[in-house]
Design the sequence.
């Protein structure tokens, strides 16, 4: 009969871990890269697109490796869809830089290299944070943004 | 306090009979300071003397009666005017008359019921005190002496472990287990967290102890939550099949026993909050109530019991039985 005045602090029994689980790839692999900014169009109709590449082993995503091209306003569209339809607190996007779009600037405005790089980093942080959110992963708009060739703005919002 | 310098005044001093031997316990006051007070348990007799010392020797002190009260009361901070007294005993020490010299009066409150533990909380206070009063026409002279009451329990007969599987569909499944549901204040929480499915990027996991003080009834219920402890149990990313042990020593934290619906005025409950935090600072948590109880100091009892058992080895069964019976009789006396 164990002495009641001294507590038993031995560990509780647990199943030994399967070695394939211990040394296998983790089930939470999700990496999204935002890179290769390209400016398309001419004159006042120019805009910058970025390549968004997602690699994952999460079963909720249909494609385990996908590449799409997206521009800043696509990211804005995604943020608005999620703020409206889901209960999550959507992470912030890098700035809209309206000032940079005004004429008579000394520099290239929104096509300035340093600015594009700053924006690229912000967009990458944004999409990684968002795609890892369990509730965001249920939204049709996130899957369309990451894995469909183009965004159909007339889509029917809903859960996956 | 008398501002009239004419006439007589007196000082009252309350002294317990067992002041030398009775233990003191630390108790927090409302402003957070800790003080030592005499410790009493339910059923114990409160006896002592009050010394009434005349400030101007030679002059008489006229009074409308001298009494001593033993009071147990609950005070809700948002309703300060109303003290709810759940124990109120009074002993008259002197009928109206006059004191010509300083005098001492004996008092005894026999086997006083002290059903609840002394508690100083965020929104409510429960206290026990002696109040000696010399009643006078214009203003009474009184002195209070606060005591602390602890409620003791013994090891619960039923103390099942807590074991549950929780999670987010297709994202995170864990099974958590705590070895008991009722812990005493110096106990150890032994448990484990077993990961069944990990599709999120966990950075670390901690276990918090939350104290919830509930005051008020009906539509005016107010909960005050206070995180008493935060204890990291895992640093890094777990995978399926991993088991993380928990060993949390409660003695290091300032806690009270669980108090349920004390005199229908307030409750103090404790919860274990298991918190997982992912790479993006998102928090996933599961709260589970535990019952805390106060264990009596059994050191002396177990010593005599152990001495009786030890004597079995050397003297044979009949004298061991006698020694055991003697030890038991001693315990009953205490």
Sequence:
């Amino acid at each position: 009969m164990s002495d009641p005045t001294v507590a038993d602090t031995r560990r509780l029994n647990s199943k030994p871990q399967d070695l394939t689980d211990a040394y296998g790839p983790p089930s939470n692999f999700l990496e999204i890269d935002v890179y290769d900014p390209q400016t398309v169009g001419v004159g006042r109709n120019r805009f910058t697109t970025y390549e968004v590449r997602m690699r994952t082993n999460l079963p909720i995503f249909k494609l385990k490796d996908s590449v799409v091209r997206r521009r800043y306003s696509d990211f804005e569209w995604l943020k608005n869809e999620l703020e409206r339809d889901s209960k999550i607190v959507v992470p912030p996007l890098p700035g809209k830089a309206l000032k940079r779009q005004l004429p008579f600037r000394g520099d290239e405005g929104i096509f300035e290299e340093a600015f594009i790089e700053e924006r690229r980093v912000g967009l990458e942080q944004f999409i990684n944070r968002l795609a890892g959110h369990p509730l965001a992963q249920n939204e049709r708009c996130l899957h369309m943004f990451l894995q469909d060739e183009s965004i159909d703005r007339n889509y029917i919002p809903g859960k996956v | 306090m008398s501002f009239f310098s004419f006439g007589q005044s007196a000082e009252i001093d309350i002294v317990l009979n067992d002041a030398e031997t009775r233990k003191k316990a630390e108790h927090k006051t409302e402003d957070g300071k800790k003080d030592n007070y005499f410790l009493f348990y339910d059923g114990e007799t409160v006896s002592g003397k009050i010394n009434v010392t005349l400030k101007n020797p030679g002059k008489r002190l006229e009074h409308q009666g001298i009494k001593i009260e033993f009071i147990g009361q609950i005070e809700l901070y948002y309703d300060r005017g109303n003290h709810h007294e759940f124990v109120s005993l009074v002993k008259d020490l002197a009928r109206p008359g006059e004191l010509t010299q300083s005098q001492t009066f004996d008092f005894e409150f026999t086997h006083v019921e002290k059903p609840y533990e002394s508690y100083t909380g965020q929104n409510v206070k429960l206290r026990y005190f002696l109040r000696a009063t010399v009643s006078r026409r214009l203003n009474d002279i009184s002195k209070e002496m606060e005591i602390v009451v602890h409620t003791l329990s013994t090891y619960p007969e039923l103390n099942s472990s807590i074991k549950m599987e929780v999670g987010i569909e297709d994202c995170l499944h864990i099974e958590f287990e705590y070895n008991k549901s009722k812990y005493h204040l110096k106990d150890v929480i032994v448990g484990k967290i077993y990961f069944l499915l990990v599709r999120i990027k966990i950075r670390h996991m901690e276990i918090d102890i939350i104290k919830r003080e509930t005051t008020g009834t009906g539509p005016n219920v107010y909960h005050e939550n206070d995180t008493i402890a935060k204890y990291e149990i895992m640093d890094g990313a777990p995978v399926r099949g991993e088991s993380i042990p928990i060993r949390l020593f409660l003695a290091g934290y300032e806690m009270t026993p669980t108090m349920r619906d004390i005199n229908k005025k307030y409750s103090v409950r404790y919860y274990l909050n298991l918190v997982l935090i992912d790479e993006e600072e998102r928090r996933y948590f599961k709260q589970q109530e535990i019952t805390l109880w106060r264990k009596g100091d059994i050191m002396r009892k177990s010593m005599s019991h152990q001495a009786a058992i030890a004597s079995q080895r050397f003297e044979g069964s009949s004298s061991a039985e006698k020694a055991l019976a003697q030890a038991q009789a001693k315990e009953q006396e205490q």
Q: What stands out?
A: Helices of chain A lie at 19-23, 72-85, 113-131, 140-147.
